[in-house]
């Protein structure tokens, strides 16, 4: 077994040991096609008020600008599909936010994986990223054979659907690379047809400025545009409609990550419970939850909007 094959086998085995569900590896190169698509998307203003998307363009499209002498991009998927669902009439929360903040959970696993690589291989440079850095993680997941980009813009794994967090580890190690897989959406348009705000403007193109997740999480203004009134389908934090209707998610299985066990209040709160929640209680219950990103004021705003 050559060195690249030995390193690759080690990384994939330890990724599985740390609880990652899937691991794929691609060669670190500049993403020219993605650069053109991203430029057009930004030019059309589909990022809304998410101005951070305009920053570090060169780093987004070239991992070698994030890690010196980068040679490989390791992509890891971690399932977050919950075993239990919310009360049917309650304000809806995206499934990714049922448990602890995934940034903290995954960052720890990435640091451990890199430490094990350094212990086994010697001087290895690398950086791990989880959704909060200029990395086009879905493109790298696609390049490394972990799935294809669905018409809803999400990565879809043929055996496991799309309810996954995507993490990236860029390293200067030369490894064995996986091959991309085909697109299996076919003629299906269920996600395009189901989007409550018509944010899926074309197959694979999400107008972020129309997305319910954008309005309920990213938008920091006091008011949600009136033209969206009555179109949120009771979503208070995030939105899963385009994933819930996807036929490939019939293969989703409950996750095995203990930190992603649902916060009891998320499963059990009624509309009345949410309305009576104080800021102090919110900070205590959701202190380790992704919901803290919207802050108490944001949750109150969203609740008023969907109940209006």
Structure description:
This protein is globular. Helices cover 34% and strands 13% of the residues. The chain has a domain of 169 residues: 3-Layer(aba) Sandwich (NADH Oxidase). The longest helix is centred in the middle third of the chain and has 20 residues. It is built from twelve helices and ten strands. α1 packs antiparallel against α4. With 308 residues, it is α+β, with helices and mostly antiparallel strands. GO terms for molecular function: epoxyqueuosine reductase activity. It catalyses: epoxyqueuosine(34) in tRNA + AH2 = queuosine(34) in tRNA + A + H2O. Its cofactor is cob(II)alamin; [4Fe-4S] cluster. Catalyzes the conversion of epoxyqueuosine (oQ) to queuosine (Q), which is a hypermodified base found in the wobble positions of tRNA(Asp), tRNA(Asn), tRNA(His) and tRNA(Tyr).
Keywords:
308 residues, alpha+beta, NADH Oxidase, four-stranded antiparallel β-sheet, two-stranded parallel sheet, 13% strand, globular, metal-binding, cobalamin, Epoxyqueuosine reductase, oxidoreductase
């Amino acid at each position: 077994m050559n060195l690249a094959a030995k390193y690759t086998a080690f990384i994939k085995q330890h990724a599985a040991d740390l609880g990652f569900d899937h691991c794929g590896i691609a060669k670190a190169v500049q993403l020219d096609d993605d650069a053109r698509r991203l430029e057009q998307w930004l030019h059309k203003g589909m990022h809304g008020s998410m101005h951070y998307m305009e920053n570090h363009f060169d780093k987004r499209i070239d991992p070698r600008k994030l890690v010196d002498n980068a040679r490989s991009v390791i992509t890891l998927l971690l399932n977050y599909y919950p075993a239990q669902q919310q009360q049917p009439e309650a304000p809806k929360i995206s499934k990714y936010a049922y448990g602890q903040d995934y940034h903290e959970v995954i960052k720890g696993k990435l640091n451990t994986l890199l430490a094990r690589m350094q212990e086994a291989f010697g001087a290895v440079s690398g950086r791990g990223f989880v959704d909060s850095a200029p990395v086009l993680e879905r493109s790298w997941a696609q390049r490394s054979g972990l799935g294809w980009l669905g018409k809803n813009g999400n990565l879809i794994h043929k055996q496991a659907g799309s309810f996954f967090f995507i993490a990236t580890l860029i390293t200067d190690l030369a490894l064995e690379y996986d091959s991309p897989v085909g697109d299996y959406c076919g003629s299906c348009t269920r996600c395009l047809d189901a989007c409550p705000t018509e944010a899926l403007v074309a197959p694979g193109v999400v107008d972020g400025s129309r997305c319910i997740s954008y309005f309920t999480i990213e938008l920091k203004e006091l008011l949600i545009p009136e033209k969206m009134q009555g179109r949120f389908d009771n979503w208070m934090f995030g939105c899963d409609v385009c994933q819930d209707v996807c036929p490939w998610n019939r293969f989703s299985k409950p996750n095995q990550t203990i930190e992603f066990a649902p916060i009891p209040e998320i499963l059990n709160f009624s509309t009345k419970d949410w309305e009576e929640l104080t800021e102090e209680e919110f900070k205590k219950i959701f202190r380790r939850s992704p919901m803290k990103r919207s802050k108490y004021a944001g949750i109150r705003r969203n609740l008023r909007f969907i109940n209006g």
